[in-house]
Known about the structure:
Strand order of the largest sheet: 1-10-4-7
Order of helices and strands: HEEEEEEEEEE
Oligomer: single chain
CATH topology: Jelly Rolls
Number of helices: 1
Distance between the termini: 44 Å
CATH architecture: Sandwich
Helix content: under 10%
Number of domains: 1
Largest sheet: 4 strands, antiparallel
Amino acid sequence: MLFIACAGIFTSCADDAFYVSTVDMKHNFWQRGESTSYEIEITDTTVCYDIALHLRNNESYPWTNIYVISSIEDTTGTLERDTTMCNLFDITGRPTGHGLSNVKENTIVLWEDYMFPHGGEYEVKVSHGMRNVELPGIASLTLRIVKNDTIR
């Protein structure tokens, strides 16, 4: 019964997403310089979009935070580029994310109220900005885009 209730909650939360795509990291390692790419088709340019990355990690991730470099590109080049920091563990070493097992999910807001300048194909790229060549303990990255119905 609890499973059915949880499934209903997760299904209803996913229904408001305009775009959701997950990339699983091979062997739970995120290589430096390895970008995950998400291709998006935008048809409605009259509303704003909230763009977030859901990062799933486990306790083998050795640092308390992570820096994520993200960009939005179209056929003309890079439109936006930003670096965002997220704490994956608090100062006592407890995971900050949500989850029932040792794998936790943190939401990293990349852009709020983003308005795409024109209809067409876009690519969102995400890479990590940590000094190490590979980051252990990163299970997956999910890009989630929601129309926030703010009309400009």
